[in-house]
Specification:
Number of strands: 33
Number of helices: 23
Helix content: 25-40%
Bound molecules: zinc ion
Shape: globular
Radius of gyration: 29 Å
Amino acid sequence: MRVCTLLLGLSLSMPGLALTSAQYLPSDAELDPAIPTPESVLGWEVGDWRVSHDQLVRYMEALAAASDRISIKTIGYSHEGRPLLQLIFTQPENHGRLEALRLQHLRSAYGDDDGSAPLVLWLGHSIHGDEASGSNAALLSAYYLAASRSDFVTELLKDSIILFDPSLNPDGLNHFASWSNSNRSLHPVADRRHRIHHQAWPGGRGNHYWFDLNRDWLPLVHPESRARVAEYHRWLPQVLTDQHERSSDGYFFQPGVPSRQHPLTPPENLELTQALAQFHARAMDAAGETYFTEDDYDDFYFGKGSTYPDINGSIGILFEQPRISGPEMERDTGLLTFVNAIQNHLRTTLSTLHGAHELRASLKDYQRGFFRTMSERAREAGFAAWVVGDDGDPARATTFLDLLERHQVSFAALDREVRAGGQLFSPGHAWVLPAKQRQFGLLQALMETRTEFQDDTFYDVSAWTQPLAYNLPFARLERLPQTTDGQSSAVPSAPDPEALAWIVPWRQLQAPAVLQSLLAFGARVRAATRPFTATTRNGDLAFGRGTLVVHAGLQDPGLASRALEVLAKAAADGVEVASAVSSLTPDGPDLGGLKFRLVKPVRPLLIVGQGVSSYEAGDAWHHFDQRLGYSPVMVEMHRLDGIRLPDFTHLVMVDGDYRLLAEPLKQRMALWVREGGTLITSGRASDWAEALCFKALPEDCPAGTEKPERDPPATRAHEDFSDDLPQRVIGGAIVATALDLTHPLAYGYSRPGLPLFRRGATLLSPSGNAYSTPLHYAQQPLLAGFIGQQRQDEIRGQPALIAERQGAGLVVRFANNPLFRGFWRGTERLFDNALYMGQVVSATELPE
Ligand SMILES: [Zn+2]
């Protein structure tokens, strides 16, 4: 038996495709033999396999245990419960007084410098989990910082505190490591068509919910970002690195395109980025590696890891290594190996350390200067503060204020009524965000509505104005109004067990989750289709459309008390629940009438898989799971054939390419709608849904759609293409819309102007029914960001959302994703209404 094992036990390890740690590291690095190498802990050499997250953690813990240069802690957990590690490298004497050093550094950063504060650096790796060379290189750079006895490392650790995050996205890293390792052959296949180079949907780029964490530094939707940004502000590093892989050839490091740096970032940031780039260039030149700067990438959207630092007094640096999935891959520039990818990121980590150490005086000066510049800008801003109202929904406002707090922005409660920007802001329902504060730069980035740009090309979105995202009224104030630290918003009273009915206003952020918890156990809940005033324990109160009414007497035996439990818990969490004492109302319909419509439980199916946008499918999954409190049944597009549609009440189709859905399935879907199903689509799924035919007889369906004829374009120079393209691309901007507040899809809204996030070019074909378009783009659509003139002209007055009855069912078409990146909280109610209030949409056919 033993002999067989020896003969047949060919390991999948591949000597020659990996290197020892010593081979990776600079030749002058005399290494302390007491410090464990990655290969001694992992059992294989770096580059041989993609490191899984638990292996990465195991090595970092072993390293920390063996080295007196390291402190290690867990700063949070990913959605899947993986630890978010932070290692701190500095000389041994410093570890006992890290807190004192941190405070000394912050004092220095904020202007009180005695010259002895440490340099603080942050090394971050592989926020895109399938761009794994960063985290694999992190094994080596961590080992180097712990083991090297070189003069350089000794000096570096004496002068610096290095915060080291080996994996910014543990769930994605692990997901991808499983894919890459489980598809790796003993003999590597460099052919790009091979399976290993094409991850299965949705890939390991995102986190658990398929979100791009490198867009979440500003919205902070996810635990990974929240923990990281809290540590970021605790330490306020002078430099932060962000290692990625890109789909094309050529190693990139910042600066990106200089004209595409955000105008709020001080120009000196670019100068220091350029100074650091000299160090990367020297290291890459010495290795004979090619690279580029000042192209492709920018520093505009502050929600990215290399840009967020730029508006917080640090220098963020992006590194992009050509992507590789297996051990080897054929690229246009020749054979790329994983070892080579790791070497490149290791090189620029070391060049960052060298550069930052050499430039430490300038980096510290820059950081102090940054906060000085921001306070000068606040003084010269021409206004004293922003005021933000709660829009009658304290929970939405609280969520927004929580975001401000996480970004260290200070605010106070308004203490006296003010009128600004044509709106009235009242104490208890509004907050003041003063310009005069340390975080003025970031605050401005969160609040501004910029529509003029030096350059019209954007790597990501061109606007993210937070009060527009949260749909909260806001305005600038010329003078600072009276404020108070105390918060006067009243705690909602508990529902009265003896009440005839309990009433939950639908305008509240948490109302859909409350409704879902009630429907989940079979409670009968009705929704108001007209405004009304009810007589309650707290007097006569007015309620809007969509308000939920739970009659105790309408519930099946035993269920009224369960409903009361759910509502009492909701009230304890801040949800307003009123207790009605009579069905007779002083104003509007009586509670027992037909204007209150039963809301039936929903059972949605979310289509996922190849062809579907994983980001938008993730937005929907996350919304259901994290905010509504249940998960849809998720089915890959290619499995739909075997699914019985009548088992579901809703089909959700987010942006994607659905052309592969076969004709018989489309007919089944149309029949399912006619018989009462609700189809919810957005983006390209809405285009696709327009071709569905809901006629009972196939011969009544049109044979095909005719393409409108287009005039050939005027001839332009080939080079003009790059200038013309941004005019046609909507990378992401904020547009104004007009909402029909009487439509069930608008229930819960109280103001007709709803800011919407617009991305892509989907235009909805107008409805043939006059009552089916609850949302139109405004005549002057652009609120913030960039949209080319022709694209603005195209959407003026056009439908943004259409909800049409088809037989007993409903088709809800969104031109844009109402759940954008989980932070566009202002439009998520449209989606929830499509789920719950779509049932209330009446047939609106006028007789001929
Ligand atoms: Zn990336």
